Amino acid sequence: MLAAALKQIEDTSALLGEDYPDKKRFKKALAAVKTPQKVIKGKVNGYSAFRIQHNDARGPFKGGIRFHPNVSEDEVRALATLMSLKCAVAGIPYGGGKGGIIVDPSKLSPEKLKNLSREYAKFIAPHIGPWKDVPAPDVNTDGQTMAWMLEAYEKEVGVQSPATFTGKPLELGGSLGRTEATGQGGAFVLQIYARLKALKAENTTIAVQGYGNVGYWFAKIAAGIGFKVVAISDSVGGIYDAKGLDPDKVLAQKEGGVLKRNITNEELLELPVTVLVPAALENAINKDNMKKISAKVVFEMANGPTTAEADAYLFEKGIDVIPDILANSGGVTVSYFEWVQNLSGDSWTRERVNKELEKKITKAFTDIDRIKTEKRISYRKVANYIALKRIIDAMMLRGRV
């Protein structure tokens, strides 16, 4: 994963280098972007723990904390790097960060999980803060985890500081609209894309692989505005109906254990739909199945669901790929709104959150689409170009390189 993140930066460097006459200075900036500013690691209650802060030229570090047995330093470093790119392309004033503990939380009692969360917050306390580094939930962490961490952090620093963590419960300063934010942001991008490509919603078919929070909300919102969701899958398999599916009914059947799956995850990826939405695993679209993809556009709602080889092949075949750093940036954008609300002591309505999200993500996509048309390159290369340029420009303006 780290190699893939660094390759994205390298692949964009030739295009980006045209904008910088001082090649020596540009190379120094590029090298800096490939290297995190700070790596914090150690043991917390006997478990290996990390917080990696990638680049804060554009603002405080921002990124989730995951509890998972497969967490590694390289994975956390890659995710911190991608968060810098995501925040930059979304136009929000953050740099990237990421944290994690190598642990299987399902094997911990609630009390031990609470204690681990609190001890991790104490471990990273000297390195975080509302103007320094703002963590959030990620894999196997949630609002309750953030509540435990906030309490421990505030005891360490001796002041109330709700803006230090986002993804909190509403009662502790969380934001309305955060639960559905990633799916909602993706649906906004879909609307803009459909408008630019003259796609009628009722004739636009969608297949969603992965029915966790992101996949569910994307499907629900897309169906609610008239798009036709025809396939949905989870880790076990999927359901396909050419006439269309009701995302809420599918969820109820899944949770009730009565969902009648009739396709595999592999078969879902190969359906002749308008929009394919990989919302589950990394590398879902790869060299083994890329030639079988028949969708007109791929919306990456998961992180890194398309390998570099598959991405190049799909571009060559005229299949658009809306990259993860844009498609799923709704979550971090609404986390930014939560931070803004906490800093100002304000509380926004859900309507205001969604209006501001639509405004941010619409501008991000239209900026990318304009350059894509001008330079005739992929959406991913344009997104990386914009993100890296914004980060490097900020570093140069600050005199770091």
Please provide a brief summary of the model.
The protein is an alpha/beta fold. 48% of the residues lie in helices and 15% in strands.
Explain what you see:
The active site is at 98 (proton donor). The record marks 138 as: Important for catalysis. This protein has 401 residues and is α/β, with parallel strands linked by helices. The protein has 2 domains: 39-86 and 95-172, 3-Layer(aba) Sandwich (Rossmann fold); 175-401, Rossmann fold, CATH 3.40.50. It has helices at residues 2-17, 23-33, 73-90, 110-124, 143-157, 181-196, 213-224, 247-255, 265-269, 308-316, 324-327, 330-344, 350-375, 379-398; strands at 38-44, 47-55, 61-68, 95-102, 133-137, 205-209, 228-233, 238-240, 275-278, 297-299, 320-322. The protein has a 6-stranded mixed β-sheet with strand order 8-7-6-9-10-11. It has a 5-stranded mixed β-sheet with strand order 1-2-4-3-5, with helices on both faces. It is globular, with a radius of gyration of 21 Å. The protein starts with a helix and ends with a helix.
* Fraction of residues in H or I helices: 40-55%
> Which of globular, elongated, flat, extended, rod-shaped describes the shape?
globular
Total helical segments:
14
Which structural class do you get from the secondary structure elements? Answer: alpha/beta
Classified by CATH, the class of the largest domain is Alpha Beta
Mean pLDDT: 96
CATH architecture of the largest domain: 3-Layer(aba) Sandwich
Biggest pleated-sheet summary = 6 strands, mixed
Compute the number of strand runs: 11
Oligomeric assembly:
single chain
Q: What name is given to the CATH topology of the largest domain?
A: Rossmann fold
- Which radius of gyration do the C-alpha atoms yield? 21 Å
